[in-house]
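[agent] plan:
  1. take the single chain provided in the ticket
  2. run structure prediction with default settings
  3. attach structure tokens to the ticket
  4. add a short note for the reviewer (M.T.)
[agent] executing step 1
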Amino acid sequence: MKIVFQTPPIRGVERTTPDGRRHNGTAVFTAALYAPTEAMPSHAIRVTVAEWRRTSLHPDGSLRFTPPRDMVGATPIVPVVVPAAVIDALPADHFLAIRWRLEIGGLP
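[agent] step 2 finished; step 3 output follows
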């Protein structure tokens, strides 16, 4: 596994848990690359770089990811943009796993 893109911490994020409680914290977006034979975390969806390119590329060649609906900021969080140069450099047969993570109350 190799982290190919990660945002700096995004402060002032709020997440509502399934029980309806709201928690303040800091969010980080991460895109990790996995080799075809490498084990991936159970929460990760197995999507190859080629599939991301075919189905999700923005017209400028980047990939854009919006936060989960239950994660909001004091002001709207704009989509994270993984630049085209990063996507172009990735092997097509590898898997790209994305993740939004929230650290309650501070920096992750």
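[agent] step 4 note for reviewer: DSSP finds two helices and seven strands in the chain.
[agent] ticket updated
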